Amino acid sequence: MTCNYTIRLDTDLRRQAEALFSDLGMSLATAFQIFLRQAVQEQGLPFPVRKKQPNKATLAAMKEALEISESPDAKTYASAGEMMEDILK
Asked: What's CA 37's distance to the chain center, in Å?
């Protein structure tokens, strides 16, 4: 037995997904069924869902920027032009 289920999708996302799944030889409906079967089997989403974490280099740069911004000895500029003049000396 089957049933119909209606969902709202962003038009561009739908087109991209249909193109992808067509290249894989399946319809969007088949892809949804695969997703749902996998979710039931896994008893959760069949892929990790997490916030993006910055890599080590980015974390180090963020830490350095925070330290510089909190330093009383940090050089400041009144304008971007002033900063560029100083850089180009």
From this structure: 25
